[in-house]
Input
Amino acid sequence: MTINRREFLRNSAAAAAAATGAETFASTAGAQEEAINVAGIHDLSGGLDIYGKPMVDALTLAVEEANAAGGLLGRQIKLINYDPQSNMQLYTQFAQQAALKDKVAVVHGGITSASREVIRPVLDRFKTLYFYNTQYEGGVCDRDQFDTGVTPAQTVEKLVPYAMKKWGKKVYVIAADYNYGQITSQWVKKYVTENGGEVSSIDFFPLDVTNFGSTISKIQAAKPDFVWSALVGGAHISFYRQWAAAGMRTSIPMASTTFAVGNEHIVLSPEECNGMLICYNYFQDLKNPTNQAFVARFLKRFGADYPNITELAMGTYQGFGLWAEGVKKAKSVDRLKAIEALETGIRIDAPSGAVTIDPPTHHCILDVHIAEVKDKKLNVLEDFPQQKPSDTAASCNLIKNPNDNQQYVIKI
Output
């Protein structure tokens, strides 16, 4: 299937528009006054919408499936979607609105780490449960928050030695200039060094940067064995186009823990991104019955021509599933009761495989896979079952220290 960025965004916008039906679903079932309010705060516009639209679709499907099965605790679920438009002030506004005005039982939201750190203190202040469903740099230790995405010990630790064995030991890192890129680049440096390699340079870029000509010249001069990309957002897609246009894709290979989570491999041509290595918890083509059934349901709901079900979409679907299982076990949507239930080690059999809450960290134990980008597909090369969030676990133990509330940052 060939689809350009404009077509992809238009198709996703149509799917997101359909998601508004979830907001009124409970009332049509005649249970509006008894509905459980759930908030989704994901970018449907702005530079981060390439990530947000599939996340909204996944959350919509999860809520619709739950309601079709009778809801939770005999009550229907009302999904309230907010579009922060990739604007941090709107993230703050909508987090407060969700907690105070809409009195939601849980918020699923945030894409960048910057947006998470805007949402988190607001929801902590108003005692609202928060699920952050995005792969990120690790280290958050907050009893009111659960993190369902992969962290560096689950992905960077696996992809670095794989890429070094394949390509060589000299690495050039390019990353988004905020806490995700800054912290993740340090994890890359740590694992490169531990595997006998060297990082020749780490370059950071604001999210709105689109001109990478001087950086490409620097990389050419440095002659690394491969480039590690932790670029983020729609503007940074320009790097891959400029890299290929300079003839670099075929001369210096690339690995990434951000590429394809926004369906960049669909937006770009094969000539612009074939051969890149990535590492995530979920790929649409995973061969297991649960995933195959899920993909069939998803495509039936949002269209057979849906570009690709992303890692972040699956994290969101799994995050809702974990929260729902916690509510069932607690027999309550009360924040503290749900937290205590989740801390028993709630597990779901998800499309990505088994996903289990790690009680001390509120992160997840899950499978990860290395894949190669080829002709708009993500071909799995190697599997790593049931990886623990050992990076966060080195600093965070919410069972022993339930009042801990901070992000621990790697020190090198």
Q: What stands out?
A: Confidence is low (pLDDT under 50) at residues 1-32. The longest strand covers residues 363-374.
